[in-house]
Amino acid sequence: MSTFVLGEFAEERALLDAARTLREAGGATLDVHSPYPLHGTDEALGLRPSTVPLVALIAGVTGAVSGYLLQWYTVAFDWPLNVGNRPPHSAPAFIPVTFELGVLFASATIFVGLLAWWFGFPRVHHPAFEVEAFRSASIDGLWLSGEVAPERAEAFAAELGRLGARQVYVVPEGATR
Amino acid sequence: MSTAPRTTEPPADPLEAAPVLVGRPDDRALTESLLTPVLGPVKRGWVLLLLVLLCGMGFWLLSLTVTLFVGIGAWGNNIPVAWAYDITNFVWWIGIGHAGTLISAILLLFQQKWRTSINRFAEAMTLFAVAMAGMYPIIHLGRPWLFWWLIPYPSTNLIWPNFKSALPWDVFAISTYATVSFLFWYLGMIPDLATLRDSATRRAQRIVYGILSFGWRGSARHWQHWRIGYLLLAGLSTPLVVSVHTIVSFDFAISQLPGWHTTIFPPYFVAGAIFSGFAMVVTLMIPARKAFGFEHVVTARHLENMAKVILATGLMVTYGYAMEWFIAWYSGSSVEWFTFVNRAVGHYRWVFAMQMFCNVIAPQAFWFPRFRRNLVVLFVVSVLVNFGMWAERFVIIAVSLTRDFVPSSWANYTPTWVDWGLLSGSICTFGVLFLLFLRFLPPIPISEVKELRRELAERDHLRAGGAHAERP
């Protein structure tokens, strides 16, 4: 079990510098919270490149292939359908549905995947929400958070203050459970 | 908190006629102003308009009920005019929807900053327009309760849909379009729903927006994936929007009816869709920005750019008309040529005249900056374009059908009150949905406008001479 520590910064640059310093010090899972995406957080937090594009590509190809197979199976194989004496397996006529299903699978995977897998949503009971002032994170506040071992929490909070946080909060262990 | 002034005026850019963002309000002031329609008091005008539109929606429900109980015999359709108001309305609404996707996806990929403050609004328009559009093919089935026969599933009927027909393509295109538009819209809105949750003062609002935002906490780890996912959805929507109206045009182009059987339809339909959609965004935006005080984020620049897009797509549509006529003559097919002459001088010549006036002549006003910046002219022309695009679809669909190959089967078409009810009622229902959207969801993308403000402030700073600009 770990303790959640939050610090609010006035300046974007100070926030990113603090994130870099704390990451080098180690011992905490860091995160930045801001009302809009900040430039440089990926580098400051050492985040790896997102896997969203790869997963979307796989889903899109799966959708397109299954779309084509669906049409081939239904009108060319299972029940060959003679329309105007055209061949039952008419590739050009299968393109629209193939394309649409590719887009549909990729898009649905991105959306559901983002929420359920990459974001871990729905999660409305996150420890950050225990701090009333954290409401500003979606309005105009720049926050740095760290999950640390409970015995290190006070030291981490002090470090946040030293690095320029205007206000620091320690969310007590088990507060949200 | 900071004692700095809430708004600072940026240095003027001599190359820009009007800014994309008026002033540089700080994030809190921006949030407050953009959330006023949701968190502020209910406006009397909003309630009145909603009541009026609800009456229209009642008419729509009545027309739908009559259609369901009587069947499509309640409409003016006949043979040969088997497709008339219903399919015209369908193509019109789906076309309107396309501007929303264009604004939110294509302009995002082209990094057009002016799209930022209008994209949520335009996407909502897309969703509601597609909802209206999707209903028409279903009620046109005659037995709409069996619409699921179009879905390929192993049924006891032992038959499959015919995938070589444009109608199953339509099913896939429209349902994919509706789904992807919704996902794109909602994904973009999650950070703003969190802003609403955190700004709301009433407990019920906090709970509802808390649930709708799924627990968004602005985490950098989430923003990283969110940005990529949002960009990818834009990238997927871009070819999607082109494919959807292409497939809609296939409904006509792959048939053999004179006036329908032409290869120019896909690009010409897509251009027409964007044309009418942008006109609808302008029609809705001009009153909404005034009523809700969005003039600082939806500026004269946005309206002027939309007027330019209307002019450009209007010219594409005009080119489409010219080519249709040219090919009808050049093909040497007397039936094809007759169809076109019949459009211009036949029974429905006044609809054709309306189409030409609204779609070809009216948008020419936008060559002049004076008219692009005049709200009255903008509004009037945008309404005319909406009207003209409806007339265009009527001319293509119904007028072509009235005169097919065999003169003995010729017949004219007259709409019944049910036809009118389904058209006017759908406009009111669309309005109801739109008013509810304006009241209950953030109509301007707050996080994106903040990002824009930050970029602009950085640029102002560099321009003011600060080489090592301190970030705002």
Give the key terms.
heterodimer, A: 177 residues, alpha+beta, 2 domains, 4-stranded antiparallel sheet, 5 helices, elongated, B: mainly alpha, two-stranded antiparallel sheet, 2 strands, 68% helix
Question: How would you briefly describe this protein structure?
Answer:
The complex is a heterodimer of chains A (177) and B (472). Helix content of chain A is 47%, strand content 14%.
Characterize the structure shown:
The complex is a heterodimer of chains A (177) and B (472). In chain A, 47% of the residues lie in helices and 14% in strands. Chain A has 177 residues and is α+β, with helices and mostly antiparallel strands. Chain A folds into two domains: 3-49 and 126-171, no CATH class; 52-118, no CATH class. In chain A, α3 runs antiparallel to α4. The longest helix of chain A has 28 residues, at 91-118. The radius of gyration of chain A is 25 Å and the shape is elongated. Chain A starts with a strand and ends in a 6-residue tail after the last strand. Chain B has 472 residues and is mainly alpha-helical. Chain B has one domain (16-140, 161-463). Helices cover 68% and strands 1% of the residues of chain B. Chain B is built from 15 helices and two strands. Chain B has a two-stranded antiparallel ribbon with strand order 1-2. Residues 1-8 of chain B have low confidence and may be disordered. At the A-B interface, β2, α2, α3 and α4 of A face α1, α5, α7 and α15 of B.
